Amino acid sequence: MKILLCASEVVPFAKTGGLADVAGALPLVLENLGQEVIITMPRYKTIQEPKFKIQRLKDDISYALIGKNIKVYLVESDKYFARDGLYGDKAGDFKDNLDRFSYYSKRTLRLLEEINFKPDIIHAHDWQAALIPVYLKSIYGNHPFYKNIKTILTIHNIGYQGLFPKEEFPKLGLEWGLFNMEGLEFYGQINILKGGMVFADIINTVSQTYSEEIQTKEFGYGLEGILSKRKNDVFGILNGLDYSIWNPETDHFIASTYSAKDLEGKHKDKEDLQRICNLPPKKDIPLLGIVSRLAEQKGLDILAEAIEKICRMRLQLVILGTGDLKYHLILEDILKRYPKVISLYLKFDDQLAHKIYAGSDIFLMPSKYEPCGLGQMISLRYGTAPLVFKTGGLADTVSEDNGFVFDRYTQEGLLDVIEKAISRYAKPRQWMALLRNAMKCNFSWEASAKKYIRLYERLKAK
Predict the structure, then answer these.
(1) Whether residue 48 has pLDDT greater than 90
(2) Is 294 helix (H, G, I), strand (E, B) or coil?
Protein backbone atom coordinates (compact mmCIF):
# COMPACT_ATOMS: atom_id res chain seq x y z
CA MET A 1 0.00 0.00 0.00
CA LYS A 2 0.93 3.62 -0.54
CA ILE A 3 0.65 5.60 2.70
CA LEU A 4 1.03 9.32 3.40
CA LEU A 5 1.63 10.19 7.05
CA CYS A 6 0.89 13.81 8.00
CA ALA A 7 2.07 15.25 11.31
CA SER A 8 3.15 18.62 12.63
CA GLU A 9 6.19 17.12 14.35
CA VAL A 10 8.33 14.11 13.48
CA VAL A 11 11.45 12.69 15.13
CA PRO A 12 14.30 13.44 14.41
CA PHE A 13 13.30 16.75 12.79
CA ALA A 14 11.12 18.43 15.41
CA LYS A 15 9.61 17.38 18.71
CA THR A 16 7.55 18.78 21.57
CA GLY A 17 5.92 15.52 22.70
CA GLY A 18 4.95 11.93 22.02
CA LEU A 19 3.31 12.73 18.67
CA ALA A 20 6.78 13.24 17.16
CA ASP A 21 7.96 9.85 18.46
CA VAL A 22 4.98 8.09 16.88
CA ALA A 23 5.27 9.97 13.58
CA GLY A 24 8.97 9.14 13.38
CA ALA A 25 8.84 5.48 14.48
CA LEU A 26 5.68 4.10 12.84
CA PRO A 27 6.74 4.83 9.21
CA LEU A 28 10.07 3.04 9.70
CA VAL A 29 8.34 -0.16 10.79
CA LEU A 30 5.67 0.14 8.08
CA GLU A 31 8.48 0.37 5.51
CA ASN A 32 10.15 -2.73 6.96
CA LEU A 33 6.80 -4.52 6.63
CA GLY A 34 6.67 -3.78 2.90
CA GLN A 35 4.60 -0.59 2.76
CA GLU A 36 5.48 2.46 0.64
CA VAL A 37 5.45 5.49 2.94
CA ILE A 38 6.06 9.22 2.60
CA ILE A 39 5.68 11.93 5.27
CA THR A 40 4.80 15.62 5.15
CA MET A 41 5.48 18.13 7.91
CA PRO A 42 6.23 21.86 8.17
CA ARG A 43 9.84 22.95 7.82
CA TYR A 44 10.47 24.83 11.03
CA LYS A 45 13.38 27.18 11.60
CA THR A 46 15.18 24.49 13.63
CA ILE A 47 15.26 22.01 10.70
CA GLN A 48 18.57 22.98 9.17
CA GLU A 49 21.20 21.72 6.80
CA PRO A 50 23.59 19.92 6.94
CA LYS A 51 22.31 17.84 9.85
CA PHE A 52 19.46 16.29 7.86
CA LYS A 53 20.97 16.29 4.33
CA ILE A 54 18.01 18.25 3.01
CA GLN A 55 17.45 18.39 -0.74
CA ARG A 56 15.50 20.98 -2.70
CA LEU A 57 12.42 19.85 -4.68
CA LYS A 58 10.61 23.13 -5.34
CA ASP A 59 10.85 26.73 -4.13
CA ASP A 60 8.59 25.88 -1.18
CA ILE A 61 9.22 22.14 -0.78
CA SER A 62 12.37 20.33 0.35
CA TYR A 63 12.86 16.77 1.55
CA ALA A 64 15.10 14.50 3.58
CA LEU A 65 15.31 10.73 3.91
CA ILE A 66 14.76 8.46 6.89
CA GLY A 67 14.74 4.67 7.04
CA LYS A 68 15.70 2.92 3.80
CA ASN A 69 13.93 5.30 1.44
CA ILE A 70 11.17 7.26 3.20
CA LYS A 71 10.96 10.81 1.89
CA VAL A 72 10.01 13.39 4.50
CA TYR A 73 8.63 16.34 2.53
CA LEU A 74 9.10 19.65 4.32
CA VAL A 75 6.49 22.32 3.59
CA GLU A 76 8.25 25.69 3.66
CA SER A 77 7.01 29.20 4.38
CA ASP A 78 9.11 31.93 5.95
CA LYS A 79 5.89 33.71 6.89
CA TYR A 80 4.51 30.75 8.85
CA PHE A 81 7.36 28.48 9.94
CA ALA A 82 10.57 30.52 10.19
CA ARG A 83 10.24 31.07 13.94
CA ASP A 84 11.68 29.44 17.02
CA GLY A 85 8.62 27.64 18.40
CA LEU A 86 6.47 25.00 16.73
CA TYR A 87 3.11 26.15 18.07
CA GLY A 88 3.83 29.16 20.26
CA ASP A 89 6.26 31.03 22.48
CA LYS A 90 6.38 32.29 26.06
CA ALA A 91 3.38 34.52 25.34
CA GLY A 92 1.25 31.51 24.37
CA ASP A 93 0.03 29.94 21.14
CA PHE A 94 0.86 31.78 17.93
CA LYS A 95 -2.13 33.92 16.92
CA ASP A 96 -1.94 32.71 13.31
CA ASN A 97 -1.92 28.94 13.98
CA LEU A 98 -5.10 28.55 11.93
CA ASP A 99 -3.37 30.15 8.93
CA ARG A 100 -0.19 28.14 9.50
CA PHE A 101 -1.72 24.68 9.64
CA SER A 102 -4.39 25.28 7.01
CA TYR A 103 -1.54 26.34 4.70
CA TYR A 104 0.37 23.16 5.58
CA SER A 105 -2.73 21.02 4.92
CA LYS A 106 -3.54 22.58 1.53
CA ARG A 107 0.09 22.44 0.40
CA THR A 108 0.34 18.78 1.39
CA LEU A 109 -2.59 17.82 -0.82
CA ARG A 110 -1.35 19.85 -3.82
CA LEU A 111 2.07 18.23 -3.44
CA LEU A 112 0.65 14.74 -3.98
CA GLU A 113 -0.40 15.52 -7.55
CA GLU A 114 2.84 17.39 -8.23
CA ILE A 115 4.98 14.36 -7.31
CA ASN A 116 2.39 11.93 -8.73
CA PHE A 117 2.05 10.05 -5.45
CA LYS A 118 -1.52 8.87 -5.02
CA PRO A 119 -1.76 7.25 -1.60
CA ASP A 120 -4.21 4.54 -0.73
CA ILE A 121 -4.29 5.94 2.79
CA ILE A 122 -3.67 9.39 4.25
CA HIS A 123 -2.89 9.03 7.96
CA ALA A 124 -3.31 12.43 9.66
CA HIS A 125 -2.33 13.06 13.27
CA ASP A 126 -3.97 15.50 15.72
CA TRP A 127 -5.67 18.82 15.00
CA GLN A 128 -2.72 20.33 13.14
CA ALA A 129 -3.28 17.84 10.28
CA ALA A 130 -7.03 17.35 10.75
CA LEU A 131 -7.93 19.76 7.92
CA ILE A 132 -6.45 17.34 5.38
CA PRO A 133 -9.48 14.97 5.44
CA VAL A 134 -11.74 18.06 5.36
CA TYR A 135 -10.06 19.53 2.27
CA LEU A 136 -9.81 16.14 0.57
CA LYS A 137 -13.58 15.59 0.68
CA SER A 138 -14.65 19.19 0.09
CA ILE A 139 -12.25 21.17 -2.11
CA TYR A 140 -10.85 18.05 -3.82
CA GLY A 141 -14.03 16.00 -3.66
CA ASN A 142 -14.57 15.96 -7.46
CA HIS A 143 -10.92 15.99 -8.53
CA PRO A 144 -10.11 12.70 -10.35
CA PHE A 145 -6.56 12.40 -8.96
CA TYR A 146 -7.82 12.39 -5.36
CA LYS A 147 -10.70 9.99 -5.90
CA ASN A 148 -10.82 6.92 -3.61
CA ILE A 149 -8.06 8.12 -1.27
CA LYS A 150 -9.07 7.03 2.25
CA THR A 151 -8.26 8.91 5.44
CA ILE A 152 -7.59 7.99 9.04
CA LEU A 153 -7.27 10.58 11.82
CA THR A 154 -5.34 9.64 14.95
CA ILE A 155 -6.18 11.56 18.13
CA HIS A 156 -3.25 11.56 20.54
CA ASN A 157 -4.95 13.76 23.16
CA ILE A 158 -8.51 14.94 22.64
CA GLY A 159 -7.92 17.87 25.00
CA TYR A 160 -6.08 19.68 22.17
CA GLN A 161 -8.64 20.52 19.49
CA GLY A 162 -7.49 23.59 17.53
CA LEU A 163 -10.14 26.12 18.58
CA PHE A 164 -10.36 29.48 16.76
CA PRO A 165 -12.82 32.40 16.52
CA LYS A 166 -15.71 32.10 14.07
CA GLU A 167 -14.52 35.27 12.33
CA GLU A 168 -11.44 33.40 11.04
CA PHE A 169 -13.48 30.78 9.17
CA PRO A 170 -13.08 32.47 5.72
CA LYS A 171 -9.30 31.90 6.00
CA LEU A 172 -9.91 28.17 5.60
CA GLY A 173 -11.23 28.56 2.06
CA LEU A 174 -14.26 26.41 2.87
CA GLU A 175 -17.93 27.09 2.19
CA TRP A 176 -19.78 28.70 5.09
CA GLY A 177 -22.20 25.79 4.96
CA LEU A 178 -19.58 23.66 6.73
CA PHE A 179 -19.67 25.94 9.77
CA ASN A 180 -22.54 24.22 11.56
CA MET A 181 -23.19 21.65 14.29
CA GLU A 182 -22.61 18.80 11.83
CA GLY A 183 -19.36 20.35 10.60
CA LEU A 184 -16.61 22.52 12.08
CA GLU A 185 -18.73 24.63 14.44
CA PHE A 186 -18.29 24.07 18.19
CA TYR A 187 -20.13 26.36 20.61
CA GLY A 188 -19.70 29.31 18.26
CA GLN A 189 -16.03 28.61 17.50
CA ILE A 190 -14.12 26.77 14.79
CA ASN A 191 -12.99 23.32 15.96
CA ILE A 192 -10.39 21.85 13.60
CA LEU A 193 -10.17 18.46 15.33
CA LYS A 194 -13.95 18.10 15.13
CA GLY A 195 -13.79 18.83 11.40
CA GLY A 196 -11.25 16.06 10.94
CA MET A 197 -13.41 13.67 12.96
CA VAL A 198 -16.44 14.45 10.76
CA PHE A 199 -14.60 14.02 7.46
CA ALA A 200 -12.08 11.24 8.17
CA ASP A 201 -13.12 7.73 7.11
CA ILE A 202 -11.79 6.26 10.35
CA ILE A 203 -10.93 7.78 13.72
CA ASN A 204 -8.16 6.19 15.73
CA THR A 205 -6.74 6.75 19.21
CA VAL A 206 -3.60 5.49 20.90
CA SER A 207 -5.15 2.79 23.12
CA GLN A 208 -8.33 0.75 23.12
CA THR A 209 -9.48 1.98 26.53
CA TYR A 210 -8.89 5.62 25.57
CA SER A 211 -10.99 5.13 22.42
CA GLU A 212 -13.85 4.06 24.72
CA GLU A 213 -13.20 6.74 27.36
CA ILE A 214 -13.38 9.66 24.91
CA GLN A 215 -16.91 8.59 23.99
CA THR A 216 -17.98 9.57 27.52
CA LYS A 217 -18.75 13.02 28.91
CA GLU A 218 -15.93 12.71 31.47
CA PHE A 219 -13.17 12.31 28.88
CA GLY A 220 -14.67 13.52 25.59
CA TYR A 221 -14.00 17.26 26.05
CA GLY A 222 -17.30 18.05 24.37
CA LEU A 223 -16.72 15.77 21.36
CA GLU A 224 -18.19 12.60 22.90
CA GLY A 225 -21.40 13.04 20.92
CA ILE A 226 -19.78 12.87 17.51
CA LEU A 227 -17.57 9.98 18.64
CA SER A 228 -20.55 8.01 19.91
CA LYS A 229 -22.35 8.74 16.64
CA ARG A 230 -19.36 7.30 14.73
CA LYS A 231 -18.56 4.54 17.24
CA ASN A 232 -18.31 1.90 14.50
CA ASP A 233 -15.49 3.92 12.93
CA VAL A 234 -13.52 4.52 16.16
CA PHE A 235 -10.54 2.27 16.93
CA GLY A 236 -7.68 2.12 19.41
CA ILE A 237 -4.13 0.93 18.76
CA LEU A 238 -1.41 1.26 21.38
CA ASN A 239 1.69 3.21 20.50
CA GLY A 240 4.81 1.10 20.37
CA LEU A 241 8.08 1.45 22.24
CA ASP A 242 11.48 1.75 20.57
CA TYR A 243 13.40 -1.11 22.17
CA SER A 244 16.62 -0.01 20.49
CA ILE A 245 16.56 2.96 22.89
CA TRP A 246 14.81 1.41 25.91
CA ASN A 247 16.61 -1.86 26.60
CA PRO A 248 18.33 -2.68 29.92
CA GLU A 249 20.56 -5.19 28.11
CA THR A 250 22.20 -2.48 25.97
CA ASP A 251 21.45 0.84 27.74
CA HIS A 252 24.68 2.87 27.90
CA PHE A 253 23.16 5.39 30.33
CA ILE A 254 22.85 2.93 33.23
CA ALA A 255 25.56 1.72 35.60
CA SER A 256 25.05 -1.99 34.89
CA THR A 257 23.13 -3.76 32.13
CA TYR A 258 20.88 -6.72 32.92
CA SER A 259 18.19 -9.04 31.56
CA ALA A 260 15.20 -11.03 32.81
CA LYS A 261 17.48 -14.06 33.17
CA ASP A 262 20.10 -12.18 35.20
CA LEU A 263 18.82 -9.31 37.35
CA GLU A 264 22.07 -8.76 39.28
CA GLY A 265 22.74 -5.60 37.27
CA LYS A 266 19.43 -4.13 38.38
CA HIS A 267 20.52 -4.32 42.02
CA LYS A 268 23.69 -2.40 41.08
CA ASP A 269 21.59 0.19 39.23
CA LYS A 270 19.52 0.73 42.38
CA GLU A 271 22.70 1.32 44.40
CA ASP A 272 23.94 3.72 41.71
CA LEU A 273 20.63 5.65 41.71
CA GLN A 274 20.62 5.89 45.51
CA ARG A 275 24.19 7.16 45.46
CA ILE A 276 23.69 9.90 42.86
CA CYS A 277 20.40 10.93 44.51
CA ASN A 278 22.01 11.14 47.98
CA LEU A 279 19.65 8.54 49.42
CA PRO A 280 20.75 5.93 51.99
CA PRO A 281 21.90 2.77 50.13
CA LYS A 282 19.22 0.44 51.50
CA LYS A 283 18.36 -2.80 49.69
CA ASP A 284 15.46 -3.84 51.88
CA ILE A 285 13.11 -0.92 51.17
CA PRO A 286 11.51 -0.16 47.79
CA LEU A 287 12.71 2.78 45.74
CA LEU A 288 9.89 4.51 43.84
CA GLY A 289 10.65 6.54 40.72
CA ILE A 290 8.72 9.24 38.88
CA VAL A 291 9.64 10.66 35.45
CA SER A 292 6.82 12.98 34.49
CA ARG A 293 5.42 16.34 33.61
CA LEU A 294 4.38 17.75 36.98
CA ALA A 295 0.75 18.54 36.21
CA GLU A 296 -2.71 17.57 37.40
CA GLN A 297 -3.30 15.31 34.38
CA LYS A 298 -0.30 13.25 35.49
CA GLY A 299 -1.79 12.67 38.95
CA LEU A 300 0.14 15.38 40.76
CA ASP A 301 -3.02 16.60 42.48
CA ILE A 302 -3.57 13.37 44.44
CA LEU A 303 0.17 12.83 44.81
CA ALA A 304 0.52 16.29 46.39
CA GLU A 305 -2.34 15.50 48.80
CA ALA A 306 -0.73 12.20 49.79
CA ILE A 307 2.96 13.15 49.71
CA GLU A 308 3.37 13.69 53.45
CA LYS A 309 1.92 10.26 54.24
CA ILE A 310 3.96 8.67 51.44
CA CYS A 311 7.19 10.08 52.90
CA ARG A 312 6.36 8.49 56.24
CA MET A 313 6.14 5.04 54.66
CA ARG A 314 9.03 2.60 54.46
CA LEU A 315 10.25 3.66 51.02
CA GLN A 316 12.41 6.06 49.05
CA LEU A 317 11.21 8.35 46.23
CA VAL A 318 13.03 9.96 43.29
CA ILE A 319 11.16 12.53 41.18
CA LEU A 320 12.36 13.95 37.83
CA GLY A 321 10.35 16.46 35.83
CA THR A 322 9.05 19.99 35.43
CA GLY A 323 5.58 21.45 35.31
CA ASP A 324 3.22 23.63 37.30
CA LEU A 325 4.87 25.97 39.79
CA LYS A 326 2.51 24.97 42.63
CA TYR A 327 3.75 21.38 42.44
CA HIS A 328 7.37 22.54 42.30
CA LEU A 329 6.80 24.44 45.56
CA ILE A 330 4.99 21.56 47.30
CA LEU A 331 7.75 19.10 46.38
CA GLU A 332 10.56 21.50 47.33
CA ASP A 333 8.92 21.94 50.73
CA ILE A 334 8.59 18.18 51.34
CA LEU A 335 12.22 17.69 50.25
CA LYS A 336 13.38 20.01 53.06
CA ARG A 337 11.51 17.91 55.62
CA TYR A 338 12.37 14.43 54.28
CA PRO A 339 15.83 14.70 52.67
CA LYS A 340 16.65 11.04 53.36
CA VAL A 341 13.38 9.82 51.82
CA ILE A 342 12.88 11.96 48.73
CA SER A 343 15.20 13.19 45.98
CA LEU A 344 13.92 15.87 43.59
CA TYR A 345 15.13 17.07 40.16
CA LEU A 346 13.02 19.85 38.64
CA LYS A 347 14.43 19.57 35.11
CA PHE A 348 14.61 17.30 32.08
CA ASP A 349 17.59 14.93 32.13
CA ASP A 350 17.58 12.03 29.68
CA GLN A 351 20.44 10.14 31.34
CA LEU A 352 18.86 10.42 34.79
CA ALA A 353 15.54 9.25 33.34
CA HIS A 354 17.20 6.03 32.13
CA LYS A 355 18.81 5.56 35.54
CA ILE A 356 15.43 6.00 37.28
CA TYR A 357 13.72 3.44 35.05
CA ALA A 358 16.53 0.95 35.69
CA GLY A 359 17.30 1.64 39.35
CA SER A 360 13.80 2.01 40.78
CA ASP A 361 11.79 -0.90 42.12
CA ILE A 362 8.42 0.71 41.42
CA PHE A 363 7.50 3.31 38.79
CA LEU A 364 4.80 5.68 39.99
CA MET A 365 2.44 6.91 37.23
CA PRO A 366 -0.93 7.88 38.76
CA SER A 367 -2.22 9.84 35.74
CA LYS A 368 -5.81 11.05 35.90
CA TYR A 369 -6.06 10.23 32.20
CA GLU A 370 -3.43 8.85 29.85
CA PRO A 371 -4.28 8.25 26.16
CA CYS A 372 -1.43 5.75 25.80
CA GLY A 373 1.56 6.43 28.02
CA LEU A 374 5.11 5.28 27.41
CA GLY A 375 6.49 5.50 30.96
CA GLN A 376 4.72 2.33 32.07
CA MET A 377 5.92 0.46 28.96
CA ILE A 378 9.50 1.53 29.61
CA SER A 379 9.33 0.55 33.27
CA LEU A 380 7.95 -2.90 32.36
CA ARG A 381 10.89 -3.43 30.01
CA TYR A 382 13.28 -2.51 32.84
CA GLY A 383 11.65 -4.81 35.39
CA THR A 384 10.40 -1.85 37.41
CA ALA A 385 6.83 -2.55 38.50
CA PRO A 386 4.50 0.22 37.27
CA LEU A 387 1.94 1.58 39.73
CA VAL A 388 -0.89 3.25 37.80
CA PHE A 389 -4.45 4.53 37.87
CA LYS A 390 -6.83 2.44 35.77
CA THR A 391 -7.26 4.68 32.73
CA GLY A 392 -6.49 4.77 29.00
CA GLY A 393 -3.32 3.05 27.89
CA LEU A 394 -2.35 2.38 31.50
CA ALA A 395 -5.39 0.11 31.88
CA ASP A 396 -4.45 -1.65 28.63
CA THR A 397 -0.86 -2.41 29.61
CA VAL A 398 -0.68 -2.84 33.40
CA SER A 399 -2.42 -5.51 35.46
CA GLU A 400 -1.95 -7.33 38.78
CA ASP A 401 0.32 -9.75 36.90
CA ASN A 402 2.96 -7.16 36.02
CA GLY A 403 2.35 -4.18 38.31
CA PHE A 404 -0.14 -2.40 40.54
CA VAL A 405 -3.43 -0.74 39.57
CA PHE A 406 -5.88 1.40 41.56
CA ASP A 407 -9.35 2.41 40.39
CA ARG A 408 -10.33 5.13 42.90
CA TYR A 409 -8.77 8.42 41.83
CA THR A 410 -8.24 9.74 45.37
CA GLN A 411 -5.27 10.10 47.68
CA GLU A 412 -6.69 7.17 49.67
CA GLY A 413 -6.76 5.01 46.54
CA LEU A 414 -3.16 5.95 45.79
CA LEU A 415 -1.96 5.34 49.36
CA ASP A 416 -3.69 1.95 49.52
CA VAL A 417 -2.00 0.66 46.37
CA ILE A 418 1.43 1.97 47.48
CA GLU A 419 0.98 0.04 50.75
CA LYS A 420 0.08 -3.02 48.70
CA ALA A 421 3.22 -2.64 46.58
CA ILE A 422 5.43 -2.25 49.67
CA SER A 423 3.91 -5.41 51.13
CA ARG A 424 4.60 -7.36 47.92
CA TYR A 425 8.18 -6.04 47.83
CA ALA A 426 8.76 -7.61 51.26
CA LYS A 427 8.17 -11.06 49.71
CA PRO A 428 11.22 -11.64 47.47
CA ARG A 429 9.93 -14.70 45.65
CA GLN A 430 6.64 -13.02 44.71
CA TRP A 431 8.49 -9.86 43.77
CA MET A 432 10.88 -11.62 41.40
CA ALA A 433 7.95 -13.38 39.71
CA LEU A 434 6.27 -10.00 39.21
CA LEU A 435 9.41 -8.48 37.66
CA ARG A 436 9.89 -11.38 35.27
CA ASN A 437 6.25 -11.07 34.16
CA ALA A 438 6.84 -7.39 33.58
CA MET A 439 9.92 -7.99 31.44
CA LYS A 440 8.07 -10.51 29.26
CA CYS A 441 5.70 -7.79 28.02
CA ASN A 442 6.17 -6.83 24.37
CA PHE A 443 5.02 -3.42 23.20
CA SER A 444 7.25 -3.20 20.13
CA TRP A 445 6.33 -0.95 17.24
CA GLU A 446 6.17 -3.99 14.96
CA ALA A 447 3.15 -5.35 16.84
CA SER A 448 1.42 -1.95 16.63
CA ALA A 449 2.36 -1.41 12.97
CA LYS A 450 0.83 -4.75 11.98
CA LYS A 451 -2.44 -3.63 13.60
CA TYR A 452 -2.27 -0.37 11.64
CA ILE A 453 -1.75 -2.28 8.39
CA ARG A 454 -4.85 -4.38 9.14
CA LEU A 455 -6.77 -1.14 9.81
CA TYR A 456 -5.47 0.39 6.56
CA GLU A 457 -6.52 -2.72 4.62
CA ARG A 458 -9.97 -2.63 6.20
CA LEU A 459 -10.24 1.05 5.28
CA LYS A 460 -9.03 0.51 1.70
CA ALA A 461 -11.67 -2.19 1.19
CA LYS A 462 -14.42 -0.04 2.69
Answers:
(1) no
(2) strand
Q: Is the pLDDT of residue 402 over 90?
A: yes
Q: What is the DSSP string of 394-423?
A: HHHH--TTTSEEE-S-SHHHHHHHHHHHHH
What is the DSSP track for 170-218? GGGT--GGGSSTTTTEETTEEEHHHHHHHH-SEEEESSHHHHHHTTSTT
190 pLDDT tier (thresholds 50, 70, 90): very high
On the question of a common fold for 2-240+446-461 and 264-442, the answer reads yes
CB-CB contact of 336 with 441 (8 Å): no
CATH topology of domain 2-240+446-461: Rossmann fold (3.40.50)
The long-range contacts involving 90-97, CB below 8 angstroms and separated by at least 24 positions, are 97/162, 97/164
CA-to-CA distance for 309 and 140, rounded, in angstroms? 60
pLDDT tens digit sequence for 130-171: 999 999 999 999 999 999 999 999 999 999 999 999 999 999
Domain borders along the chain are 2-240+446-461, 264-442
Neighbours of 232 (CB within 10 A): 7
Nearest to 212 by CA among 41, 396, 70, 373: 396
Q: How far is CA 224 from CA 150, 289, 337, 354, in A?
A: 23, 34, 45, 37
In the predicted model, what is the mean pLDDT of the chain? 96
Supply the pLDDT for residue 92.
86
Q: Decide: helix, strand or coil at residue 74.
A: strand
134, 174 Cβ separation under 8 angstroms? yes
**pLDDT above 90 coverage of the chain, percent:** 95
Cα–Cα nearest to 190, from 99, 316, 108: 99
Decide if pLDDT at 16 tops 90.
no
Task: Name residue 316's beta-bridge partners.
Answer: 287
Q: What Cα–Cα distance (Å) separates residue 141 from each residue in 5, 123, 132, 137?
A: 20, 18, 12, 4
Domain 264-442 CATH assignment equals 3.40.50.2000: yes
Are 287 and 315 spatial neighbours (Cβ–Cβ below 8 Å)?
A: yes
**pTM value?**
0.91
Among 155, 236, 231, 235, smallest CA distance to 195 is for 155
**pLDDT, tens digit, for every residue of 271-305?**
999 999 999 999 999 999 999 999 999 999 999 99
Cβ proximity of 384 and 267 under 8 Å: no
Question: 154 vs 3, 22, 193, 389, 457, CA distance in Å?
Answer: 14, 11, 10, 24, 16
What is the rounded distance in angstroms from the CA atom of residue 160 to the CA atom of residue 166?
18
